[in-house]
Amino acid sequence: SFERGMCDLFQPKGVAVSSANTVLFPWGSPNTTGVGALCYVSFAMIAPHVTHGGMLINMFPETDAADLIVVWGGNPVSTQVNAMTHIARARKERGAKLVVVDPYRTGTAAAADMHLALRPSTDGALACAVMYVLFAEGFADRDYMAKYTDAPEALEAHLGTRTPDWAAAITGLKAADITDFARLYGRTERAFLRLGYGFTRSRNGAANMHAASCLPAVTGAWRHRGGGALYSNGGLYPIDPTLIEGLDRLDKSVRLLDQSRIGPILNGAARDLGDGPPVTALFIQNTNPMSVCP
Question: What is the spatial distance between Cα 122 and Cα 102, in angstroms, rounded to a whole number?
Answer without folding.
Answer: 10
